[in-house]
Design brief:
Chain A: Its EC number is 2.6.1.-. The complex is a heterodimer. By secondary structure, chain A is of the alpha/beta class. Chain A folds into two domains: about 140 residues, Alpha-Beta Complex (Aspartate Aminotransferase, domain 1); about 240 residues, Aspartate Aminotransferase, domain 2 (3-Layer(aba) Sandwich), CATH 3.40.640.10. Helices cover about 40% and strands about 15% of the residues of chain A. Chain A has 14 helices and twelve strands. In chain A, the strands form three sheets. A seven-stranded mixed sheet of chain A has the order 2-8-7-6-5-3-4, sandwiched between helices. A three-stranded antiparallel sheet of chain A has the order 9-12-11. In chain A, strand 3, helix 6 and strand 4 form a beta-alpha-beta unit. The longest helix of chain A is centred in the last third of the chain and has 24 residues. By secondary structure, chain B is an alpha+beta fold. In chain B, helix 2 crosses helix 3. Classes of the chains: A alpha/beta, B alpha+beta. At the A-B interface, helix 2 and helix 11 of A face helix 2 of B. Bound molecules: pyridoxal-5'-phosphate (PLP). The site of pyridoxal-5'-phosphate has 13 residues of chain A, from helix 5.
């Protein structure tokens, strides 16, 4: 028999996260800082609205673009929160999670061999999706010592005549970094100069602490060259409902819709109805969750820094990305040891690209008590290995 | 953070978990510990914070205590409104909480007694006989579902995957 699996799929490396997931399965009493989804349940009024709709018989397909009411609410929301204007009839597409929106975006814009600049460390899906869409991912590291400032010379150097798109994600999974206005402005400048389309994954926009998120398409001249991607999974604790969206100029949404209508048909109706409730009435509960994340963020940042594992204060999302460069372990080895010796699950930075070596990703979408216990265990791990901050200094 | 906001933040944390120490709270808010403890002391002194208590699942305790709520209709008195009658009522130790209400009755009492008989005695002998009380309506509590924001039934937890992207 022939080998039926396509080469381009075979060549995609297995996800580093998957490998860790397999390790954790079957272990008991693990405290996991490895989870990329909220620990809160979907607020009850949201679930209840969907249950009610199902009872009323809302169990059919919707229009390919998604329920008009939801698109209208999203348009209103984007206008009110980020001052960006999209026509709900033509420029917004409801997708199965932000994940599908990314897949559609790459498939809609890439010709074979087109290059996409991706800033690493980055969420695990981007590079494989670009490859599967026939494009070529070109990664640029954002690691500068123990922080994540952009190096525009490096980005510039990565741009070739084949570069079609720039992919950005802020606040970022895994680093929690968001871009300053200067950085956004410079990125916009690059996009204009090299005539690039910018795919901007802003799914964590609502989970931005201390300051207001600036949407990339609100920058001068960027509306017409941006595909804005977001969704309900994170801010409203709705990962399982699978609702995301893309907002972009009409011709791009039309192209994405073409793929979507054949591959997916429409996003699930119950999820769309839940999303309407979330966007209409979910603000209070969302802010409650955000406040909780904010407190945990402060606890976890301070915890890592105290242990001498430098940890930048993340501007958004629910991840910290502390540096373990001073330890005699690679990221992967450190995470394995921590898991087997202390029952704490974290994700090696290398799961997010080779640029993540020397870092680990810890999610604070986990209860405060668990976070504290995990920090305590990490501390005792360092002590047992003679790697505590103070011992280091003494040695 | 201004003083009032600081108090709000601290109370928000303490009303969820009264065992959080000033040091814990200071880290959560990214503030100095002495600022937080000063604010807590201030609120203890001015009686913003009355007490720190455990929220108990009485169902679990198999407590044989009996609880009821009593609606009371009574007439307000000139000059003092309902305050005088309220004062008479809240001094009874079996009255755990007392509120003035809008709507079909005036005072709402949460009452605890050792037995149903005790409560019957309290209502018949003490409460209904007060001069300005016209009418009482006693409802016995049969089952607790949620206490102080906490759902008491053990809920099945759908576990999250341990590691996700
Ligand atoms: C940066 C980022 N984008 C997209 C997603 C996927 O979101 P969705 O659930 O909407 O598909 C995630 C989920 O972890 C994420 O972290």
């Amino acid at each position: 028999m022939r080998d039926f699996v396509a080469e381009k799929v075979k060549n995609i490396p297995p996800s580093g996260i998957r490998a860790f997931f397999e390790l954790v399965i079957g272990m008991k009493d693990v405290i996991s800082l490895g989870v990329g989804e909220p620990d809160f349940h979907t607020p009850w009024h949201i679930s209840e609205a969907a249950i009610y709709a199902i009872e009323k018989g809302a169990t059919s397909y919707t229009s390919n673009l998604g329920l008009l009411e939801l698109r209208e609410m999203i348009a209103l929301y984007l206008e009110n929160h980020f001052k960006v204007t999209y026509n709900p009839k033509q420029e917004i597409l409801i997708t199965v999670g932000a994940s599908e929106a990314m897949d559609l975006a790459f498939r809609a814009i890439l010709n074979p061999g087109d290059e996409v600049i991706i800033l690493e460390p980055s969420y695990v899906a981007y590079c494989p999706l670009v490859t599967l869409a026939g494009g070529v991912p070109v990664t640029v590291s954002t690691i500068r010592g123990t922080t994540f400032a952009l190096d525009f010379d490096a980005i510039r150097a990565a741009i070739t005549t084949k570069t079609k798109a720039l992919f950005i994600n802020y606040p970022s999974n895994p680093t929690g970094k968001s871009f300053s206005y200067e950085e956004l402005d410079k990125l916009a400048h690059l996009a204009r100069e090299h005539d690039l389309v910018v795919v901007s994954d802003e799914i964590y926009a609502e989970l931005t602490y201390d300051y207001q998120h600036v949407s990339f398409s609100s920058l001068p001249g960027m509306h017409e060259r941006t595909i804005l991607i977001s969704g309900f999974s994170k801010a409203f604790a709705m990962t399982g409902w699978r609702i995301g969206y893309a907002a972009a100029p009409h011709d791009i949404i039309e192209a994405m819709m073409k793929i979507h209508q054949y591959a997916i048909l429409c996003a699930p109706i119950a999820g769309q109805i839940a999303a309407i409730e979330a966007i209409k009435c979910g603000d209070k509960e969302m802010r409650f969750m955000k406040k909780e994340y904010d407190r945990r963020r402060k606890v976890i940042v301070s915890g890592f820094n105290k242990m001498g594992l430098p940890c930048a204060t993340p501007e958004g999302a629910f991840y910290v990305f502390p540096s373990i460069q001073r330890l005699p372990f690679k990221s992967e080895e450190f995470c394995r040891k921590l898991l087997t010796e202390e029952n704490v699950a974290t994700v090696p930075g290398t799961a997010f690209g080779s640029a993540g070596e020397g870092f680990i990703r810890c999610s604070y979408a986990t209860g405060m008590d668990d976070i504290k216990e995990a920090l305590r265990r990490i501390d005792s791990f360092l002590e047992r290995h003679g790697l505590s901050c103070t011992e280091q200094a003494a040695g | 953070m201004d003083k009032d906001n600081l108090k709000k933040e601290i109370l928000d944390i303490l009303t969820k978990d009264a065992r959080k120490t000033a040091a814990d709270i200071a880290v959560m808010l990214n503030l100095k510990e002495d600022i937080v403890s000063a604010s807590i002391h201030e609120m203890e002194n001015d009686k913003t914070i009355l007490n720190y208590k455990a929220v108990v699942n009485l169902q679990q305790l198999k407590s044989d205590k009996t609880h009821c709520i009593i609606e009371v209709k009574c007439s307000p008195q000139r000059g003092v409104g309902f305050d005088a009658i309220a004062r008479r009522i809240y001094k009874f130790p079996e009255v755990k909480s007392l509120y003035l209400m809008s709507g079909g009755y005036d005072l709402l009492l949460l009452v605890e007694g050792d037995t149903m008989k005790d409560i019957g005695f309290f209502v018949a002998e003490k409460l209904a006989t007060l001069d300005s009380v016209h009418n009482t309506s006693t409802h016995f509590l049969l089952k607790r579902y949620k206490e102080d924001g906490i759902i008491l039934e053990t809920q099945e937890k759908t576990p999250r995957l341990a590691v996700t992207p």
